[in-house]
Every structure is written in C-alpha cells, then in structure tokens.
Amino acid sequence: MQPDEKETAVSAAADDVPQTPDAQPEQESAHPDHKITGVLSWIMTMGITVAAVLLVCTFIARPGRVIGNSMQNTCHDGDFVILWELNYQPQHGDIVVVNSNNALGDNLIKRVIGVGGDHIVVSNGVVIRNGQRLQESYVKEQTWSGPNVDITVPKGQMFLMGDNRNHSADSRYIGTVSDNIIVGKVTVRLFPFNAIRTFQ
C-alpha cells in the first residue's frame, strides 16, 4: 500500500474539475432524524425478537434443567434440555416432564411406560405391557427392584417410570399421572456440550 500515491491521485482528479468563482464547498450535515430512525429500528427488532422467544417458550417449546438422578443414565442431574409442548400427546418411550400437580408435589422427569388403556404389570424387575415384556436397554441397572404393580392405565393418564429404577419415585409408588400436567417432551439435550443429543 502506498498512501502518498493514493492521495495524489485523488488530488489530481479534483484538479480536473472546472472551478467557478461562486462555487462553494459542500458542507456535510448531521441528520438527527437518521439517528432516531436507527434507534427505533433497533428497538423494534429487539421487541420482535423478544416476542418471538416468548411465543415459542409459551406455546411451542421451553428450556428445562434436570434435577436429580432418577433418569440416569439417559439424563443426569444438571442437564439442560429442551421440552416440546405444541400439540404433544404422550407416546410409549417418550421422556416427559410433568408439573408439581402430582402425589409427590414436585416437577418430575420420567419415561412414559403406559398410556390410557394399557395394561401394565411390573413384577420382579420386569415390565410387561399388554402381555409383551419390554426390552429396556435404557435402564441403568438391568437388575432392579421395587413394588409390584398390576394396573390398567385409565384414559387420559400415564404410567411413568425413571430409567434409574432402583432410585426413582414413579408410578410404581404414586400411581398414574394425568396427561394434563405434562409440561413437555424432552427432545434435545443442549448441555453439557460434550453430551449434546436428540431424543426420539
């Protein structure tokens, strides 16, 4: 780069322009209206962004943090997850969060084992749904214990269990849970960053 040559070229081009005695150098002026418009545009953009985020978090999806160990080794204490809410209906195998309107009085994260109409039998560490034994590779310990259960899930209810069966307070203890208290389905784990994944 050669600054002196660049400045000379600009000066030379300026000398070629015919000068008139009455010619006055143009003055640049500041336009406050432009600054105000820029600020208003920024405010509008931020407002739309905030409204969009609130809309998504209210009706479509929301963030959540896992508290406790009942879903190990699928989810761990402190995991940051995204919950899908829009038009969600519980399906077998989904991981869901329900609000505190349950027998334990706390928000719970569990796996959907049964939905309305399912016949669930839990006996000696085995889960049978509608006569078929479940193959549960997600369970932390393949040998687990707890209360035996034989129940037909009422319509509009779910039978939930944690993956850490030996350390999970779930439908074996508190019974079925209403679909109406579902906060959302866990669809993505965003944190920790080395364990990011999606859930079907």
From TrEMBL:
Record keyword Zinc present: no
Catalytic activities: Cleavage of hydrophobic, N-terminal signal or leader sequences from secreted and periplasmic proteins
GO cellular component: plasma membrane
Transmembrane regions listed in the UniProt entry: 39-61
Active site: residue positions: 70, 110
Sequence similarity: Belongs to the peptidase S26 family.
NCBIfam families in UniProt: sigpep_I_bact (TIGR02227)
Protein name according to UniProt: Signal peptidase I
Source organism of this protein record: Caproicibacterium lactatifermentans
